[in-house]
């Protein structure tokens, strides 16, 4: 348990020191994110902000967790989480690099992203298959469903959904980082309760690094995580849910991300079928801006919703 606490504090201190130093470097290198043409007008007018902030918290959390796990690479659960964390971070980095190089907020095409995401999920499953249990638990009813061969498909869906959901949520200063921190706190609870200490140390290391990131990401953001960060966070949360066998609770813990993604899907479906919008704007956090709410108030509201979702998941998990 001491390693969990110390890894959190170490990552926090490192990220607190490193971020203010890398921001001027990224600005000098013009590692900037171009605002999407689909964003609200007021977000298009924001100053150009350096991206790739996710690279820093990914590297810090992996190195710190490796140290506090005493350089032990025998834990299957920990290694699987690292595969997902690094793999999806790499996809996001490629996407960010393409955006930076071309100066347009397009990056990888949706098809290319899906192919890469499924590929990493396939690598994960290759190493996970002997360790995997295809039975999933439906909380809190103590009901179990054996997915059999469909568990592999279930894994692919979890990874693709989680990575894209966090990416969609990353649209306001402090939004994705803060809601991810809250979700990770719930995963940390389950890792500690199952005494999966190596996984717990990785989660706590990431949480500490996110605190340092949020210091420079709150409005007005000095740096953003980019797809590297959002993909890494989503990939890790999906992997942790699998190795801890709380797959279904991922939907509850990540309630904010599910909400954001669902509104986008519903909006697209409505436009294509009934030729009208059912929300003012999606992702849904932009709808609140149109309704007159301040950005900081919206982020705080999403934090509260995220906290409630995490608390409900913990209650369901211990019932």
Overall description:
The chain is mainly alpha-helical and 319 residues long. It has one domain. The protein is 71% helix and 4% strand. It contains 13 helices and 4 strands. The protein has helices at residues 2-28, 41-44, 53-68, 76-102, 110-128, 150-169, 175-193, 197-217, 226-243, 249-253, 255-273, 285-290, 295-318, and strands at 32-33, 49-50, 135-138, 143-146. The strands form 2 sheets. It has a two-stranded antiparallel ribbon. It has a two-stranded antiparallel ribbon with strand order 3-4. Helix 1 packs antiparallel against helix 3 (53-68) and helix 6 (150-169) runs antiparallel to helix 9 (226-243). The radius of gyration is 19 Å and the shape is globular.
Overall residue-averaged pLDDT value: 91
Supply the helix-strand structural class.
mainly alpha
How many distinct domains?
1
Low-confidence stretches: none
How far apart are the termini? Answer: 23 Å
Rounded to the nearest angstrom, the radius of gyration is 19 Å
Helical stretch count? 13
| Count of beta strands | 4
Q: What is the overall shape?
A: globular
Kindly estimate the percentage of residues that lie in beta strands according to DSSP. Answer: under 5%
Helix and strand sequence? HEHEHHHEEHHHHHHHH
Biggest sheet: strands, sense, closure? 2 strands, antiparallel
Strand order of the largest sheet: 1-2
The level of helicity is over 70%
